[in-house]
Give the backbone structure.
Amino acid sequence: MQARERLIFALDVDTAAEAEHLVKLLADEVGVFKVGLELFVSAGPEVISRVRAAGARSIFLDLKLHDIPATMAAAARAAARLGVQMLTCHADQAGIFEGVDLGGAQLLGVTVLTSLGPDDLRNMGYQDELSDPQALVVHRARLAMAAGCHGVVCSGWEARAVRHALGPEALVVCPGIRLPGGQAQDQKRVMTPGGAVAAGASHIVVGRPIRTAENPAQAARQVINDIA
Ligand code: C5P
């Protein structure tokens, strides 16, 4: 896989016009464009076709679905009808999609958000071994794959353990990526692009380090070089 194909850019903006602008600017550098909650809720489902028309060849709809089975299945079918290539749900609920036609979309289980550290996990009620993000991530990654996911989302810190647990075929997608010396902002478990891929990530998700750079295309090329 080329370095560029491993780069997922997060379109964390709130209008379709801004998203289209970023896709046009970055279509040569970025393999996959990610539409997350902010853009989907602000601009509506039609943003998917607009992003595609602007030049995105592959779209990742990151809704991190989490609800009762009937609602999850209906939402996933509706998302699949939009023609996206990747879709996320929380890993502990991936089994709900058994038998649901996802229209060829690859399903990724979100293990533990990269904004959470051990103290957050203890506050949420995870005790002993499972308050260690890596242990909880690997546990949930196994659940997700057993439930039929094509891969998981985890931080670069856990990529090696997850790759070891899931084998060579699984998609291992890592957000919380920062260029060397970059600010972590609200992320807690951050890693460099090259560090995450060397540890076993198939893809990395990058948002602010590209979006808020003075020259986003140049920042994207820096990310690709770091991977390569
Ligand atoms: O701006 P930044 O590079 O931190 O953006 C990271 C992106 O990855 C955001 O769109 C965020 O929603 C997403 N994400 C994450 N942690 C996860 C799953 C997705 O940061 N576990």
